[in-house]
Design brief:
Elements: E1 5-9, H1 13-25, E2 29-34, H2 37-47, E3 51-54, H3 63-73, E4 78-83, H4 88-96, E5 101-104, H5 108-120, E6 125-126, H6 128-139, H7 153-163, H8 168-175, H9 179-193, H10 198-207
């Protein structure tokens, strides 16, 4: 019988070790372990796992943006968030990015395997303690569409780096763009998101989970 292939992403070794113990007992095949969002996107593209288990808060690229990119590359990959964040906005953004399950670390022992089984069956799962609030929020999505949903991947990358305090030259070097192009993206972002200052731009990025 073919084993379910799982890619793990978390920057805390103790979490990874706990996940290994849980999954190995159930004979899942752990095909990779990464500690940052960029490595997650790259490894998911190379390994093509059945399941990705990731945190929201990840170095270099947050888990929500990584999930969005993985879902764009391979919609068949089932993405499960395992996180300490109970806020509805994070769960909503994760699901909109392509995740099929959102589990809190405080209840992981009881719910993670259930979430995996639901995901493999093509269904969704949200931790019981916040499930109703998340479902209510998602059901009202037509009146609650986030402007970030209309941004391109490049614009989201620029937004994240700006919110992390990077200057235009640093962003240009990281993304292999010209500083003028970065400035262009910055002003288009401010226009699209309806903000007038960098402080407001940073607050918006934190609110939607682009940065912590």
């Amino acid at each position: 019988m073919k084993r379910t292939r799982v890619l793990l992403a978390d920057d805390h070794a103790v979490v990874i070790e706990g996940l290994r113990r849980i999954l190995n007992r159930r004979k899942f095949e752990i095909v990779g372990v990464v500690a940052d969002g960029r490595a997650l996107v790259q490894s998911a593209a190379e390994l093509k796992p059945d399941i990705v288990i990731t945190d929201v808060a990840m170095p270099l690229l947050n888990g929500i943006e990584a999930a969005r990119q993985i879902h764009e590359q391979n919609p068949d990959t089932r993405i499960i968030f395992l996180t300490m964040h109970p806020e509805v906005i994070y769960a909503r953004q994760a699901i909109r990015a392509g995740a099929c399950a959102y589990v809190l670390k405080s209840s992981a022992g009881n719910e993670l395997l259930t979430a995996i089984n639901e995901a493999l069956g093509g269904r969704g799962y949200v931790t019981k303690s916040i499930a109703r609030a998340v479902n209510d929020s998602l059901e009202g999505r037509h009146n609650d569409t986030s402007p970030v949903d209309g941004l391109t991947r490049r614009q989201r990358e620029v937004l994240r780096l700006l919110a992390e305090g990077k200057q235009a030259k640093e962003i240009a070097a990281t993304l292999k763009l010209s500083p003028k192009t970065v400035e262009f993206h910055k002003y288009r972002l401010m226009e699209a998101l309806g903000v007038g200052t960098m402080a407001e731009l940073v607050r918006y990025a934190v609110k939607i989970g682009i940065v912590e």
